[in-house]
Structures are given as C-alpha cells and as structure tokens.
Amino acid sequence: MAELQSLARPYAKAVFELARETNALPAWSQTLATLALTASDAQVVAEIGNPRFSRGDAAKLIIGALGERLNAQAQNLVRLLAENHRIALLPALATEFEALKAEAEKRVEVDITTASEIDSAQKQSLASAIGKRLSREVEVTWNTDASLIAGAVIRAGDLVIDGSVADELTQLRHSLVS
Fold first, then answer.
1. How far apart are CA 177 and CA 171, in angstroms?
2. Which of 30, 68, 111, 169 is the most buried if burial means most Cβ atoms within 10 Å?
C-alpha cells in the first residue's frame, strides 16, 4: 500500500496544484472520489486486468462509465494514468489529494480511542487541546476500546500519542524483561 501511495503522490500534487490554481478544490475532491470508486469496482478491475484490454480501452471504459461527470481535465488525467498503466493508483491518488487539501485548509483528521465512553464536555475539551497543539482545525472520530484499560490513544496522521494503561503495562513488561 505504501508503494501505491508513493507512486500516486506526484499525480496528486499535480492535480492539487491545478485545482488550487483554478479554485476547484471541492470539485476535484468529488471527481477523484468518483474516479477512485469506479477504479475500485470489481468489474472494472477485472476488465482492466484482462491482458487483451489495451491502455486506451481502460481509459475509454472509465470515461465512458462516468460520462459527463468528468470534465476535460479529468478525462486527460484518466488517459494519462491509463497510458502509464496507473489506473489502479486512482484510490491512492484521491487519498493523497485529500491529505494535501486538508493541509492547505489547516485541517486534520484525528482518531481518538478511549477505554470507556467520555462525556461531551470532555470530548470538546480534548478536541480543543489537540487543535491548539497541532495548530489545526480538527475533525475527530471517537472510538472506545476496553482493552486499553484506561486512558486514550490519539492518532493524527503520523502522530500517535498513546496514553493508555495498556501501553504503560507493555512498556513496563519490556523494561522488566530487558
């Protein structure tokens, strides 16, 4: 998966720059989501994976399936990806684009897992503190996992803050074994 993300990154950057220059970030976000969904469809994957299916046929299939939902620039992107045997990158490209868009909008998705359910005041306080620490607007997804015993695990992109008792016990176990 990391390889797909790496391969998709230059395409995502190019599309992002185009979208930013033309003030079309939301439109491109929607277009890429649609393309990613189409490229992930089992029938499309099977057709494109057929050795008798040419590069041009792959582009025609996707452009034909989406019709008017794709503007000329999006159609050109599909043709370019097909020509380079990169149609499978569309889901990763959409993910990379969304990450670039979130960064430009100073927004971050945060996943917070707590050992037990917490009240809305605590949720608001924690979300606010994380937003201040990251200097971003945060979009929080809340989860509970009793195996944490107590505390919470916070994930924001590459940043992971593990304040769970389960993690502390694991660290203690490792230090005793060492």
1. 10
2. 111
The structural domain count of the chain equals 2
The answer to whether residues 88 and 115 belong to one domain is: no
CA separation (Å) from 88 to 77, 93, 103, 115, 156?
13, 9, 24, 38, 26
Structural domain ending residue among the three candidates 53, 79, 102: 102
Q: Which residues of 72-103 are buried (b: 16+ CB within 10 A; e: fewer)?
A: eebeebbbebbeeebbbbbbbbbbbbbbbbbe
> What is the C-alpha to C-alpha distance for residues 79 and 61, in angstroms, rounded to an integer?
10
For the stretch 61-76, pLDDT in tens is 899 889 889 999 999 9
Q: Average pLDDT of the chain? A: 89
The per-residue pLDDT for 1 is 56
Residues 43, 98, single domain; the answer is yes
- Helices (H) and strands (E) in the chain — how many of each? 8, 4
pLDDT tens digit sequence for 130-143:
899 888 888 899 99
Least confident of 29-38, 95-104, 164-173: 164-173
Domain span at residue 87? Answer: 2-102
Tokens in use for 65? 């399936």
> Among residues 122, 47, 138, 117, which one has the least CA distance to residue 87?
47
Residue 33, token pair as written in the block: 């989501």
